[in-house]
Amino acid sequence: TSGVETEINWQASEQLHLQIHASYIDIDVLKSDSHLLGRPDVTYGAQVQYQFNSQWTFNLNYLSVDDRFAASQYSGDSVEEILPSYDKLDAGVIWSLNENHKLQNFLLWL
């Protein structure tokens, strides 16, 4: 088993925060034809957060997940399948009522 994971954060200005992240993991079950389920080899993504003022903040998040193994048991026997990769895009707005209370609303696109 080997892999690497990285994350870069950049506060571009007082209002603008950027983040990118990526991971690669090579997971093998030694001396076996079995696979670890639900674990993609590669994931990566990015986030942009912009604070308009002290009350309003906007978020945009992107995530990409590589294909991964899964098991199905509809027939009683365990059958391994490969789930396809997918991309996900989320957008959100945060309204800060005060320091202790925030209201968040997120939209999800696949």
Descriptive tags:
mainly beta; six-stranded antiparallel β-sheet; two-stranded antiparallel sheet
Structure explained in plain terms:
With 110 residues, this protein is an all-beta fold. 0% of the residues lie in helices and 66% in strands. It contains no helices and eight strands. The strands form two sheets. It has a six-stranded antiparallel beta sheet with strand order 1-2-3-4-7-8, with no helix packed on it. A two-stranded antiparallel sheet has the order 5-6. A hairpin with a 2-residue loop joins strand 7 and strand 8. It is elongated.
Give a count of the beta strands, DSSP E runs of length 2 or more: 8
Strand content: over 45%
User: Could you list the spans in which at least 5 consecutive residues all have pLDDT below 50?
Assistant: none
How far apart lie the N and C ends? 31 Å
Helix content: under 10%
**Oligomeric state of the chains present here:** single chain
Chain-averaged pLDDT: 86
Radius of gyration: 19 Å
Main-sheet strand order equals: 1-2-3-4-7-8
Task: Identify the overall geometry.
Answer: elongated
What summary fits the major beta sheet?
A: 6 strands, antiparallel
Output the structural class. Answer: mainly beta
Q: How do the SSEs run, as a string of H and E?
A: EEEEEEEE
Treating each run of at least 4 consecutive H or I residues as one helix, how many helices? 0
